[in-house]
Amino acid sequence: HVNAEMVRPGHAVAYGGFGSEERYARGQGKGIWAQEFVMPSEWRKREGQPEEPSHATSGRIWGYILEVLGV
Hints:
Blueprint: H1 2-7, H2 19-28, H3 40-47, H4 57-69
C-alpha cells in the first residue's frame, strides 16, 4: 500500500491504519522523526489555524454531490 510505504521510512504521518509503520519510523528515528516534529494538527491549534477537513472518502463524495446539487 502506498501510504504504508510513505509512513514506514518516515516521509509521512499515519492517518488511519498505519500505526505500526509510524511506530517503526519513530523508533528508528527515520525521516520526519529524526528530529523534533510537531504533528500538523497540533501546529494548527498552536498557530490558530483552522482544523484540517476529514480524510473520510465517503464524506468528501457526499460533500461533492451536495455541492453539485446546490444543497
